[in-house]
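Recap from last week: sequence in, structure out.
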Amino acid sequence: VHILNVSFLVPDMRREYGGCAGNIAYNLKLLGGDPLPMGTVGSDFGPYAEWMDKCGISRKHIKEVNSYTGQAFITTDKDDNQITAFHPGAMGFSHENRVNDAEGVKLGIVAPDGRDGMIQHAEQFAELGLPFIFDPGQGLPMFNGEELLDFAEKATYIALNDYEAQLFEERTGKSAHELAEMVEALIITRGGEGSHIYTKKHRHEI
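Predicted structure tokens:
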């Protein structure tokens, strides 16, 4: 395409509070947990902060930096076709947070974030001897096979969807069974078809 210039009338618009840390913390709270989300946000975070307070979710480890908060703008038509623009913004400063700044943590999760932050937070969990889940999500393509294996060696659990599991296998050369040998459990979600949980000796289907 030599030149692309398109414009859409958007008759309805809504704002939702998401992001990996926010979504995980919100659902853990619904399950009766006491989540401590850790992330970097921008100076535009005010409305989200109010929403977190309303939901009773701690902001103790949310750091504000001179940037915009990471956000996605998604245009969806009536057939569910989508065009997405994602701006990582403050995520690029995630490495400025340190896991050992949080006290009383028993289980952690390294989810999609700034690349340096994900690497350093996995290292920090391992150094502290804290069990953690590695859930690379849409951040998985940022890492090569060697880096993904390094995450696997440090992690206690790995969570992937079926597409991510295929990409993980292609980049590392490790099958799901081989990957499960490196951790206590490998969870592969399969949408409406449930999940497969691999342990060192079994595959449990849910």
